[in-house]
Structures are given as C-alpha cells and as structure tokens.
Amino acid sequence: MTPKSPRAGGSSGRSVNAALGAAGLAAFLALGEAVPRLGIVKEQYFPPTGRIARALGDQVTDGTFWTDLGDTLTGWALGLAIAVGAGVVVGVVVSVVPYLREVTASTIEFLRPIPSVALIPLAVLLYGTELRSVLLLVVYASFWQVLVQVMYGVRDVDPVAEETARSYGLSTWARVRHVLWPTALPYVMTGVRLAAAVALILTVTAELVIGAPGLGARIAVAQTSQAVPEMYALIVVTGLLGLLINVGARSVERYALAWHQSVRGEVTV
User: Fold this and answer.
1) Is residue 56 within 8 Å of 118, Cβ to Cβ?
2) 15, 27, 198, 222: which could join 227 in a potential S-S bond, CB 3.0 to 4.6 Å?
3) Could you give the C-alpha distances from 48 to 27, 32, 33, 111, 227, in angstroms and in order?
4) Which stretches of the chain are DSSP H helices?
C-alpha cells in the first residue's frame, strides 16, 4: 500500500479549511442581512449587511478615508517597530547580564499588568491628540509581549550548548549570535505576532478615545453623527486590517523560521 504524500494531504486539508471558512463567512453575512430584516433587531441600531456594504463602498471612494487609514497604519507600524526593537534588546540584556533578571523581576511584574488604556490621561496630558500619544500607548502595550517572549526564549537555551561555546572560546557576541539567537528566535516571532495585534487594538483605541487622527476618530465621528452604517463599515475595515496583519505576521514568521522543524512540518516515521 502506497503511503499518502504529506504535501498532498496538507494541500487537501488547506482546501477543506478554506471552503469551510468561506461557508462560515457566507452564513454570517446572510445572518447579518436577515436579523434586521426580520425585525429581531432594529435597523437603526444594526443595519443589514447590504447597507453596510454600500456604506463601505462610499468610504473607499472618499479620499479622507485613505488619509485616516494611513494615519492608523503609521501609528501602528511606528509603535510596533519601537516596541519590537526595545523588547528584543532589553530582553536579551536582562537575561544575559548576571543578576539583572533578579533585580528587574519585581519591576517588570509590577509594570506589565498595568492596562495601557489607564495611561490615556497621561498621554493626553503630555502630548494631547498628537501621534506621540498613540505611540506611547502602543509601545507600552506591545513592548511587554515581546519582552516576555524573549526572556522565555533565552531561558530555553541549552546549557550544554552554552558551555560548549564558552569552552571553544567564543566571544559574548558570537554566543548570542550562534547559540542564543537561534533558540530565542521562535519565541521572538511569537512575541512579534502577538504585539502586532495588540498594537492595532491600541492604535484604534487611542484614536477613538483621544481623538488622534485615524480610523478610530473616524468611527467616533460616525457614531456621534448617527451615521450607523458608516460606523459599522469602518469597524469592518478595522477587522480586515487585523486579519491582514495576522496573515502577514504569520507569513513573516514562516519565512524567518523556514529552518525550524515546526515550520518545515517534518514528521517522524
């Protein structure tokens, strides 16, 4: 009996998952159209899917929509880049330098649980409705996602490999590059993927609450002006952004970890 090819099985599984996903989406859209039409929910509070789709089309043809979308993506990208850079550097230094982990442990555990939205008054006080207010919240929320994963990754380094590198006289930088980094990279990529989603959430939240330029502020304007279909259309846009960011982060993760067994999908026979 000839065994099935793992590649063929994987392709078939992906096709089935895609079909099921499309069917689920179609059912959800149909439900969104039927619920207000049947009077279960008032249309003034939850418009049918068709009205939301038309409002989305109107938004896409509006030039200011693309300006606001660019503002949101700018805040997201800058905040994520700063958080990832700082999280990787601080995580490696804290984990590698002797006793520094113990010295900073209580401080990290105190600061990490503080909700970023609790810093909104401070951000407004310092920077008003400028981009820097958004960056403050995004960086604070995303930084911990990366830092914790980096520290877990460094802790997972094989002590035998570390001692072997030392016995061969490798410098600190060489040990970080050839021993620590390959072990920590899967954790780093997980942190980046989590931070990317958190960064988008905080970007839109900051714009919505503070009034900084972007999709969040546009949603707030639609809500206060009773433009309900436009409000839902903008919410759909933020959902699509989250989906694209997640897919993009997973693609980057697969590319960066192409050498890793979890990505290569190797199976033990």
Assistant:
1) no
2) 222
3) 14, 6, 4, 44, 14
4) 6-37, 49-60, 63-96, 100-111, 120-127, 131-155, 159-167, 172-175, 181-210, 215-224, 228-256, 261-264
pTM of the model: 0.84
**What whole-number distance in Å separates Cα of residue 31 and Cα of residue 37?**
10
DSSP assigned state of 157: S
| 25-to-22, 31, 107, 208 alpha-carbon distances in Å | 5, 10, 44, 27
194: its two tokens: 């989590």
pLDDT digits (tens, 9 = 90+) for 243-258: 999 999 988 888 888 8
Take residue 156 and report the two structure tokens written for it.
């997972």
Residue type, 102: E
pLDDT in tens, 121-130: 999 998 888 8
Residue 123: both structure tokens together: 């951000």
